[in-house]
Known about the structure:
The complex is a heterodimer of chains A (236) and B (200).
Chain A: E1 2-7, E2 13-18, E3 28-30, E4 37-42, H1 50-57, H2 62-68, E5 84-89, E6 101-107, E7 113-117, E8 133-140, H3 141-147, E9 148-149, E10 152-157, H4 161-177, E11 179-184, E12 203-211, E13 214-222, E14 224-225
Antiparallel strand pairs in A: 1-2, 2-10, 6-7, 8-11, 9-14, 10-13, 11-12, 12-13
Chain B: E1 5-9, E2 12-21, H1 23-27, E3 29-35, E4 43-48, E5 54-55, E6 60-65, E7 71-72, E8 78-80, E9 98-99, E10 101-103, H2 105-109, E11 112-123, H3 126-133, E12 137-142, E13 151-158, E14 161-168, H4 188-194
Parallel strand pairs in B: 1-9
Antiparallel strand pairs in B: 1-2, 2-11, 4-5, 6-7, 10-12, 11-14, 12-13, 13-14
Amino acid sequence: MRKLHITNEKQRDATVGMLTLKPDPTPHMGLPGVDLEYRRYIGAAESGLHDSLVQALGEDYAQALVDGDPEIDMEYVGQHIGRSDRIYLSHGGKVLHHAPEELEVIINPDGSERERRAPKDVLANVTEEIPARWTGKRIKKRDVVRRFVLTRSVPLQHVDGLTYDFLYGMAKDLHDSDEMMLMGGGESGKQPLILIPNGSPYRGLLEGRVDGDRYILLLHLSNMELKLPAEGEKKA
Amino acid sequence: MARQINVIKDGTESIFDFKKVDRTKLYGKRKRVVLDEDGENCVKAEISEDGSSIIRSGMTMQAYFDPEGEWVENSRIVGLDEQGNPVDKVPSTLGVGQPLEEVEPGVLSQNQTIAVYHLSPVDFDESLKTQLDAGSIFRFPFNYRADYSAEVGFLLSNDAGVFVLVTKAATPQWCQLKAVAVESFTDDSEIDDDLDFEMF
């Protein structure tokens, strides 16, 4: 279980549990009464890939496929693929045996490249030392869902009696006001939340519900507004 | 003819063209590229566990196999419920009028959004438009293509236009004093994968 360091309205902090909100079960694929395994296998050897076929047979190799099945390597095709490791090949197709150089490429909304730069490591701004802060900025639930795409929701749960009171109080406050609370990260408590190193920044919006002595407290994460691309960027 | 989203409110149908909106089209994106010693882009590949095979993009396929190791044709595969019983296929909802049900914002916020569409009205019921402009949110069954489960669509509008959010239903559990979150040492990796926010 991951934990979240978080403050309430009085800027009291506590560390609570982060759960996973899984989608409700949906049908799975299979055959009635038969245990099927879904697995990967070799569908083509390297000699059966497009580039190799062009090299061997020329650009117009369709008839050759019909006549002689040159793309099928009977020794290789159909082999089950078990565990494998990720590797990088050079542009010439050779295995790299040393750590490659990485570049970060920034792409504009219209698909054009804006910048190439050395990758920058970004630190998480919600940590054991830095809590996700209750900013005091309240937004009506109806306005939140009409303004932001809630990409992911993380249920928060108490880890003991004290944190039950802590989280229940937050949930009841937000439930009664029908609002969500904007949560902030970083020392200032005003930044979007970055929950893991090199993670994407997300707006954090806290929603609470109570029913008697039960509560639900959801930390919604959003990295997208509900809007259209700017006019000049639509052609992307 | 392009497929459309059709919805019905109080017996009156509204029809919309639709276009997907994604994050890249709004904000662009950041990606990491790997370069070889000549400064050229590298290609991702895999090496088999025994080191005997290099598997490049385009060389793999996926399929269902029975316990005897025989390949099972996709046409035989069906949807099964939790008890293993076959379920009926759900047809595509595109082009077919779907009933709207007004819901509270909390119904949408607990679902997981998987796609966003911007709608262009072809035939827009004035009464529906008025309710959307006032902030109403409507739920309806949505299924892009026929399969074994429909998603949940939410119709709403804001200053930027009319949108449908396609979601997967999720049901958060109520927390009670006696049931505390407990430290687990067995499923951390699974949860860590779940919380790989970069995947979005």
